[in-house]
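A favour, since you know our structure tokens better than I do. Would you make up a two-line entry for one protein for me to read? Write everything out right here, beneath this request.
=====
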Amino acid sequence: MRHVAEAFAAPIVYTSARTGALVDDAFNALAIEMVDRAFRQEASRAVERGLREKVLLLLDKRGSIGLKKNQFFEILRGVNFDDLQSELGRLEGEGLVTLLWHGASDFTAVITPRGTAATKRESTWDEE
């Protein structure tokens, strides 16, 4: 049991169905963990939404010039590379951004007309 729990970073609570020892504590701990995870997921989604808006606004300002990979990190200090790459991948999948690759590890991101329209719609909603 310990080996399986360690693989998933899961806690182990020994309870007794016969005596009821620690059963309430185990369910309470489970409920608390579920709530904590929900809050962490929501916080993560809020960060992702913020990154999405920032990327689209930056690219909209740059127009057809776009931004190179290193420019993103100069402007968006503290952004994790994996988070940026995931967000750019989602935006490219939605047709809002085009990634122009220069070798295996360098790229330029350029906003598409559809991305520009999405940016305008989002800024209109913010003003309301």
